DNA sequence: GCGCGACTGTCATATCGCTGTCATATTTTC
DNA sequence: GAAAATATGACAGCGATATGACAGTCGCGC
């Protein structure tokens, strides 16, 4: 649960933390909610995030504008907690298409997002949160070299200030977790960064 | 590193020298920093330049105004050098989208920039960074002889002082990496330099 | 509210590969 | 055959990456 009381902050947080869903009030200080929605939908990093818009009763115009700006649903104030929850669920359900839930498997190494688990030939692997995300990114973007910068953006999130060398450390932790059986998949590309590859 | 102590000069320099990033103090003589930011963002030539705003502690209003004026990030004084550097990096990272490049293939020899890899009929080849760049240059500039000087400029970069003979050594290393299957592609042009060619 | 363990980011240090240069061998040219 | 150009092998310095350790945070269970 994250909160922001103005559009700037909200924007920054959205980029930074990649929330599953955004609940947006039409009335916000600074940039209007609608403008924020538009912005979020425009940027690739945040375009996929579902947005629910809160509008005051009867403001039909707002609803239309909101939906046009890219909101996925709207709720009219006042609303019951029950209604809110129902809509949240509905939007989340729609927003979590099989794509993200699909497990990936390579040479006996399997990452299953639905159970949030990594297994090697059936046996569970010890793996930290960051390493999990790193591995997930790699397994869904194989055979491609990424710089430390790009990995920071993709795995850590956009507005995060971390030393590039930190990536090295997590790569090492990931390799350690993968063990001898699979660590050859995580390859160093000297002078560039790292790569996940089946070959070689 | 360029400096200006007022908005006019800064504006001029920005236009003139096209810096990668602008660090802007909120407090400036003449036009305020915020006004300058707005101006820079309005003009096409300077709109893409990332701007980081320096604001005094606690002036929340300034931050909001700054971001609305188009600043990409802000730092509150006082700040640590570490933080400054981190933010600079992060902003630059976001501002420099990676170029998209096509793979090149010749007679089963394939160089793929996205995976940063060289393969011979599917099998990965061992190749160092410099040899990789050298090969990339050659494959994108085939059938043409280059002097050692030109290669140094193109592959090593303009302002490097390196012996011309060094090129010979890297040519050799490249040939070695390519192995018997492909080294005939790298040809010596006696008295001139080298050439990448399919023909004899 | 507190203590504990897990996780993160950073640093210092160890390693390893890459680089440029040289001395020497080989090839080409005339 | 001599001179010039290029190829080759060796090497030491340097820079990038790997590793191990550490302190700060955070969430959780008590």
Automatic annotation (TrEMBL), chains A, B:
Residues in OmpR/PhoB-type domain copies: 101-198
Keyword Chloroplast: no
Record-annotated DNA-binding residue ranges: 101-198
SUPFAM superfamilies: C-terminal effector domain of the bipartite response regulators, CheY-like
Signal peptide (residue range): none
One Pfam family recorded for the sequence: Trans_reg_C
Residues covered by the Response regulatory domain: 1-92
Chief location: cytoplasm
Keyword set, alphabetical order: Activator, Cytoplasm, DNA-binding, Phosphate transport, Phosphoprotein, Transcription, Transcription regulation, Transport, Two-component regulatory system
UniProt GO MF annotations: DNA binding
Localization (cell): Cytoplasm
InterPro entries for this protein: CheY-like_superfamily (IPR011006), OmpR/PhoB-type_DNA-bd (IPR001867), Sig_transdc_resp-reg_C-effctor (IPR016032), Sig_transdc_resp-reg_PhoB (IPR011879), Sig_transdc_resp-reg_receiver (IPR001789), WalR-like (IPR039420), WH-like_DNA-bd_sf (IPR036388)
Gene3D superfamilies cross-referenced by the UniProt entry: 3.40.50.2300, 6.10.250.690, Winged helix-like DNA-binding domain superfamily/Winged helix DNA-binding domain
Modified sites of kind 4-aspartylphosphate: 25
Role of this protein: This protein is a positive regulator for the phosphate regulon. Transcription of this operon is positively regulated by PhoB and PhoR when phosphate is limited.
The name this protein goes by in its record: Phosphate regulon transcriptional regulatory protein PhoB
């Amino acid at each position: 649960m994250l909160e922001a009381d103005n559009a700037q902050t909200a924007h920054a947080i959205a980029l930074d933390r990649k929330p599953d869903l955004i609940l947006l009030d039409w009335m916000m200080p600074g940039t209007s909610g609608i403008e924020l929605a538009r912005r979020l939908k425009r940027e690739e990093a945040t375009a996929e995030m579902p947005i629910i818009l809160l509008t005051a009763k009867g403001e039909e115009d707002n609803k239309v504008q909101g939906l046009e700006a890219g909101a996925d649903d709207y709720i009219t104030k006042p609303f019951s907690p029950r209604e809110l929850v129902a809509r949240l669920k509905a939007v989340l359900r729609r927003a979590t298409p099989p794509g993200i839930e699909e497990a990936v498997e390579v040479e006996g190494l399997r990452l299953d997002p639905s159970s949030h688990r990594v297994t090697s030939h059936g046996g569970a692997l010890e793996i930290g949160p960051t390493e999990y995300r790193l591995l997930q990114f790699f397994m869904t973007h194989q055979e491609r070299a990424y710089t430390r910068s790009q990995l920071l953006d993709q795995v850590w999130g956009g507005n995060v200030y971390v030393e590039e060398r930190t990536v090295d450390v997590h790569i090492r932790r990931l390799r350690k977790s993968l063990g001898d059986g699979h660590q050859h998949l995580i390859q160093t590309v000297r002078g560039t960064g790292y790569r996940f590859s089946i070959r070689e």
